[in-house]
Amino acid sequence: MDKIQSDCPYPGCFFCVMKEANPSKRRASVLKFFRELPSQDDDGQVLPVSGLWNTAMAHPNDPEFINLGIFECMAALIWKGLKNRRWLAHDQNIYVPYYAAHIIGSYTMNMEEFAECAVRAGVIPPLVELLRGRLTWVEQRVAVRALGHLATYPSTFPAVADNGEVLELATQLASSSLEIVYTHFYQFVDRRLDYHCGLLTRGMGGVEMESRKAEEWASQLQCWSLQLINCFAFKPEFLHDICKPDFLVKLPGMWGGLVNENSPAGVGLLRTICQSKVGRGDAANIPGTIDALCNIARSSDDWQYMAVDCLIWLVQDASTCHKVIDKVAPTLIDLADISTLGDYKKLGDMIVTVLQECMQQSGNSRGAISDQTKAEIDELLRSKQSLKLEKSMPKEDLHIKQAAALVVKLEGNSLFSSGNIAGAAEKYSEALALCPMKSKKERVVLYSNRAQCYLLLQQPSAAISDATRALCLHSPVNRHAKSLWRRAQAYDMLGFAKESLLDTILFINECSQSNDPDLSLKQNKVPDYAERLVKKQMRAAWLFREAALKHGGVRRAGDASDAAFGQEADDSEWETASESDGENGAATGGEADGETGWKNGGRQEDFCEKS
């Protein structure tokens, strides 16, 4: 190719080609450039490829390069890197396969016709080789992204599925991606490949920045693998290969960590699986998966509604209902007062209807539902009937019921103040029975108070149930700060780090926006006890925690032992509600709004460190 500008040191420079004012000449030059680039061995090849990457990221819907052979060029460059290791090690060519796969993924993420062009250009085989791990994990990341985009479209999915290894490789990668990134990059600081560091930080930042970006990329590697599997999960013929027990039980724990903001990850794939009768049958046979879905459904997880979808579908299916109902019903009952969640506008009403139908179906199959579950569902149905009756009840009668409930609640506060926690819990139960169903604010307080009692009585599951009910009744949903804090502590007592962490973060967020003097943050300072719990759960829910426990902590050059990263830290500074107040109950009485002690596990300390 002739030089476009005489002062350019590179003959046929791509950037000079793009400066050509004549559109016809520029197209001809670009077409020739794409054809010749894979066969060239000149220095500086990474420059035009990285420039194309920038263009693809900024203008993924621009068809100009698609019609000139960019996909054929990128596929050839990937093959060249895979087959010619001498070329790959020369100059900065090590970057080329990464950028080439990234370009393919960027141009195919929005436009189906671009994806069809990519398939015809033969991009799938080299991408599969990268997915297999022929180079490193950074190329696996962009390969699984590109294949995920190609698998999204009806017209190109068959071409991806025809390669029988893709689903198996993606499943393996979803399960092992975090361990791969940890052992191949994160753990040994002095062994990190320079080009990995360059891609992660773009030369801006040191070891700490590299580690943060590696955690983010590891999350993407796992989540994008799950998205690729999700494309297969919509096809019943692939469910048998996806729904392996050892994979299903791990799925709810694949959440991508706090760095994941946009992907539903494991619970999203489970939701797709549960849309199919075959998938529901496989999921219902894994008790650990059902337990995890119940925890997500009663949590502050952004994808809570997806877990609720799964539970509802499992109960609605006659072939799976009897397997899961005793586990699922308590969770759905706790959520029965929720109004809006995700796309649901009347979720609580739907839950009541589903459970009612389940009760009716169980009459035809003996032993399908335990007596305890039947009693809990019956109680829910009676409460909903009471709500209907209250609509026609005279206001004077409702006021009498409210006044009676208030009297009993105050008795409960008094018992709590004197240290009689069990007696206080009973009084709050009596008050809930008296309180009108439509008095939502009062019922929020009563449920939240009883949750605090259950915390001190070492009954974290009951505390989670009551705190969840309070959060569902509250408006807006899941925003009652005291209930969030109590549920966070209860999840901590059960060892559910992720759920406890999410509740604590949301609790702090609510405090920062509250006008309540007991809740508002003094001088924007996060309470010490909340900060301690966040730190503890950040360690416990750390994305690389399992890999670090298995392989050891992060090592730097000259270190004789594992660094603090990835090692279990001393959590003795944190006290749960039961540890701090289990023996003497609460020190003082109810707060001004009638709620029991809620800070630091029941101690009536002022939010701003006043004793």
TrEMBL record:
Compositionally biased residues, Basic and acidic residues: 602-611
Name listed for the protein in its UniProt record: ARM-repeat/Tetratricopeptide repeat (TPR)-like protein
Organism ancestry: Eukaryota, Viridiplantae, Streptophyta, Embryophyta, Tracheophyta
Positions of the ARM repeat N-terminal plant domain: 6-244
Pfam families: ARM_7
Organism of origin: Zea mays
Domain of life: Eukaryota
UniProt-listed InterPro entries: ARM-like, ARM-type_fold, ARM_7, TPR-like_helical_dom_sf
Region (Disordered): 559-611
Biased composition range(s): Acidic residues: 568-582
